[in-house]
Specification:
The protein is built from 5 helices and 8 strands, in the order H-H-E-E-H-H-H-E-E-E-E-E-E. By secondary structure, the chain is α+β, with helices and mostly antiparallel strands. It is globular and about 45 Å long.
Length: 229
């Protein structure tokens, strides 16, 4: 019996790993374009939901898209979960799927899993990307020191999570990240999963210096620069 338990655990780990879809790497010059194309593709698939803030600060959703528990939406959320080896769907409304969405995008875009491993938590892939800085294709910045570009990730804390340093993400930290898809002189647009129950494009004003305003709508603590050409 004492030998049976380790064997069963080994088989379980192997089965979970085997359930992950194979990852096909892309040439580096194609990765950034792939990330942006896939993010916009999924946004359209969810009905092109947009969030922005009115002059009085109130949040406006217009148009409203598909939600996670719509039949079509649930099927796509199930694809994101399969990318991290889980069989949940959009009907599992208590399971945050924003990190699974990012993981699906990165896998489909051809990013090596050593830089962006498949995971259901933002903290896991961020720690890996930050650890690869200097030899990989991602570089962390505090929001006050760097102007985001399309293909970057912008990351915020949630649920009262406290993080002291932008480049030291605690294991299991409660976070949310979006993919930047458009930047102008005063506005940034990003796409994220599980934002108001959908894949949503968010529009937000930048500060006078062109940097992300950390106090406007989310407590942004990190911009992960995409170094792919």
């Amino acid at each position: 019996m004492r030998y049976l338990l380790p064997l069963l655990l080994s088989l379980l780990v192997t089965a979970c790993a085997a359930s992950l879809p194979p990852r096909v790497l892309a040439p580096p010059q194609e990765v950034r374009g792939n990330i942006l194309r896939l993010a916009v593709q999924e946004w359209h698939a969810f009905g092109s939901q947009v969030i922005y803030r009115a002059a009085d600060g109130h949040e406006i959703i217009d148009p409203v898209g598909l939600w996670e528990d719509d039949r079509a939406g649930s099927a796509r959320v199930a694809e994101y979960w399969r990318a991290v080896g889980t069989d949940w769907t959009g009907y599992d409304g208590d399971k945050p799927w924003s990190a699974a969405f990012i993981s699906w995008i990165m896998a489909k875009a051809g990013v090596p899993d050593g830089e962006m491993p498949p995971t259901a938590t933002h903290a896991h892939y961020l720690r890996s990307a930050i650890d690869s800085a200097g030899k990989g294709h991602w570089r962390p910045h505090p929001p006050a020191d760097y102007t985001p570009r399309p293909g970057d990730l912008i990351c915020a804390t949630r649920a009262g999570q406290k993080i002291d340093r932008y480049d030291q993400v605690p294991t299991g930290a409660t976070l949310h990240c979006d993919i930047v898809v458009s930047v102008s002189s005063n506005e940034l647009e990003s796409i994220g999963g599980n934002v108001r129950n959908s894949v949503t494009r968010s529009k937000r004003l930048l500060g006078a210096d062109g940097r992300l305003d950390t106090n406007r709508d989310r407590p942004w603590f990190l911009v992960l620069e995409n170094l792919y050409p």
